[in-house]
Design a protein that fits this description.
With 91 residues, the protein is α+β, with helices and mostly antiparallel strands. Strand 2, helix 1 and strand 3 form a beta-alpha-beta unit. The N and C termini lie far apart (27 Å).
Length: 91
Amino acid sequence: MDDLDLPTGFIGLNESHVEMLFIEPDLRGQGIGRALLDHARHSRSGLSVDVNEQNPEAAGFYLHYGFVQTGRSPLDGEGRPFPLLHMRLEG
């Protein structure tokens, strides 16, 4: 939350899989995403995420955090031609 009690970002999980991580665009780079992942990481044993290959900023964020790419799918979860990078973070 910011000074006005407005959300600055949120994370959505399905078990240990990060389904979504959104940060207010003007607030990116301030550690909010890292704090959300840290929180999720401390309550689960390993995290995974699928990142759209056409979103190098997101892929770079997860790689910088410590995720490693474990695979690639040529289609997204709905069968559309948007390749996904499968990533995993141990521990």
